[in-house]
Amino acid sequence: MDFLASLKIQANNAGVSTGKAWINTTGTPIQSHSPVDGKLIGTVQPADRAGYEAVITKAEEAFLAWRQWPAPKRGEVVRQIGEALRQYKEPLGKLVSYEMGKSLQEGYGEVQEMIDICDFAVGLSRQLHGFTMHSERPAHRMYEQWHPLGIVGIISAFNFPVAVWSWNTMLGWVCGNVCVWKPSEKTPLCAVACQHIIAEVFAKNNVPEGVSGLIIGNRDAGEWMAADGRIPLVSATGSTRMGKAVGAAVGARLGKALLELGGNNAIIISKDADLDIALRGAIFGAVGTAGQRCTTTRRLIIHESVYDTVKNKLVSAYKQLSIGDPLDEKNHVGPLIDTDAVRLYSQSIEACKKEGGTFIVEGGVLEGKGYESGCYVKPCIAEAQPGYAIVQHETFAPILYLLKYKTLEEAIAIQNGVPQGLSSSIMTLNLREAEQFLSYAGSDCGIANVNIGTSGAEIGGAFGGEKETGGGRESGSDAWKAYMRRQTNTINYSTQLPLAQGIKFDL
């Protein structure tokens, strides 16, 4: 395919890079099969311990030089990366779609997110400011400033194979850090392509080798990174189970972990909702990326007075969904990432039925022409109860649970009554309901929306959630502070040494 060649993707690819050199390693190659058609796209030679050490050593050396570059100069490099991504948007978007299985529109959209965060980071490079404070001592000045941490380790998930890396990396770079990326082994070629694009820009600007490190590997590579005291910050995106392991390993060495983990997101549909908007937001949230977003809508909490109306409209709308090759823009739903995901989807449907759930739109695995990969499934809808174990669980698949409520307080309690706390939404034209949902007594999630769905977060806001979602924040707002260390400074420009709190210490 032409887009593979333009991104320098070959049949066999090295998976370990210092940003300039590709390192030969040993180990069983990782094969990347497309969930779209089951075909082998390419293989990647994974990291071994020697390759990992080479990348980390080079990153340590690069940090000493990179941190000396003025932040606006680092921002200029990131600006050029944004321009390169504009140039490669079409082939990279197609690769994202083909290797991961999301729709072509979403593949392009993911690359656009990378471009947007580059723009954000360029502006940020001139705004890494601290504060000044008044000292209680005469002729003293106090202020705080922010310094880079060093190596930022990034562990990313398959569902956003490039965007989440860029959220961390572009901010990390303008803050003066160097970055080492361990992408998902399920989407390794997207990472290889990004490393090639970055290398072109870095070479033109004489960026030190090691500022952009790549370590493709299985679980071992992530464990090396989490336990490595040379990496002060590890940013990990993925399942709650993975995040707990990373958090424990990083915490044991008193490092910093930025965790963006699972979501079990809900939309409350009020009796005062605009149902056209509510249905559009709910359907896209539930079936977009075949239900494989951390912000996917998994629960609809519907007021009893409009419950039947919403249910019937959903059933009608689901009949119109087109499932198939995501590179065909006529299709709404592509495949799951692999057959393991299909197995978990099927198990979740059976678990819901055993607990008493009733499926008003039946699920199932699709077979036949166009579905040869075995990764295509039917988006389905079940009427359920909030207390079902399966409803409390995040299944990375297009399964939507309908729940009924009487009062807004009950709806908010249902919304909050799960272990995860990422994204949430209420559909209502009632100002009081909207404000209550956004208040301290409302949603307990990191993201709370009114009259838009749970997915589709903009890069300008900090992204992340609470509880088992991990508490981390990436992307916009002041999320940049996670990638830096704060330092408080006091300058005495007097001829005396007055002590704080009026303490006397005479010699």
TrEMBL record:
Its EC number is 1.2.1.3. Keywords: NAD, Oxidoreductase. Pfam families: Aldedh (PF00171). The active site is at E260. InterPro entries: Ald_DH/histidinol_DH, Ald_DH_C, Ald_DH_CS_GLU, Ald_DH_N, Aldehyde_DH_dom, ALDH7A1-like. It comes from the Bacteria. GO terms for molecular function: aldehyde dehydrogenase (NAD+) activity. Homotetramer. Belongs to the aldehyde dehydrogenase family. This is aldehyde dehydrogenase (NAD(+)). The lineage of its organism: Bacteria, Pseudomonadati, Bacteroidota, Chitinophagia, Chitinophagales.
